[in-house]
Inverse folding.
C-alpha cells in the first residue's frame, strides 16, 4: 500500500516537473495504472476503470494522458502484443530494462540484481535509494544479435 502511494507521488511529481497539471482525471488515471500495475491494461480497460472513479473523463482524455505519460517515460506500450492489441505498462514498476537496439527485445533486470545495484550505489555514492529507478533503459545488443553481428564481421 505504502509503495503504491510512493509510486503515485513519484509519477505526479514527474508530471509537474514536465509542466503538466495534475487534474482530478489524470490523478484518477494514474491511480488506476498504479493499482493495476501487474496487469497490462488496454486503453479501453483503463478508461473503464478510471470512469468508475472520475465519471466525467472521456476516452480522448485517457488517450491524451497515456500519451503524456509515455512522453515523460512513465508508461510504455507493451512490447509483446501478439494479438495486435496495445496494452500499457508502467515503466516505473519495472526498474531497469535492457533494450536491444537491433531486434527490440526487452529484458527486465530482475529484483535481485536491482537490490545488489542499490547496495552498490549506497556503498559507492552514500546514496540511499529504494529501487526508485525512474524509467531507466539501457540500450545495446542482446546476446543473439551480438552473436549475429559477430558472424557478419567475420
Ligand atoms: Zn537483439
Amino acid at each position: 500500500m505504502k509503495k503504491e502511494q510512493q509510486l503515485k507521488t513519484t509519477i505526479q511529481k514527474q508530471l509537474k516537473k514536465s509542466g503538466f497539471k495534475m487534474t482530478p482525471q489524470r490523478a484518477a488515471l494514474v491511480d488506476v495504472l498504479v493499482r493495476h500495475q501487474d496487469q497490462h491494461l488496454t486503453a479501453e480497460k483503463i478508461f473503464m476503470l478510471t470512469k468508475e472513479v472520475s465519471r466525467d473523463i472521456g476516452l480522448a482524455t485517457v488517450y491524451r494522458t497515456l500519451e503524456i505519460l509515455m512522453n515523460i517515460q512513465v508508461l510504455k506500450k507493451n512490447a509483446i502484443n501478439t494479438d495486435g492489441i496495445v496494452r500499457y505498462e508502467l515503466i516505473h514498476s519495472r526498474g531497469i530494462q535492457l533494450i536491444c537496439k537491433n531486434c527490440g527485445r526487452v529484458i527486465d533486470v530482475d529484483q535481485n540484481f536491482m537490490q545488489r545495484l542499490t547496495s552498490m550505489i549506497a556503498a559507492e555514492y552514500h546514496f540511499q535509494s529504494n529501487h526508485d529507478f525512474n524509467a531507466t533503459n539501457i540500450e545495446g545488443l542482446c546476446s543473439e544479435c551480438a552473436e549475429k553481428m559477430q558472424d557478419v564481421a567475420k
In short: The domain at 94-154 is CATH 3.30.1490.190 (Dna Ligase; domain 1). Residues 100, 102-103, 105, 141-142, 144-145 surround zinc ion (CB under 6 Å). The first strand starts at residue 41 and ends at 42.
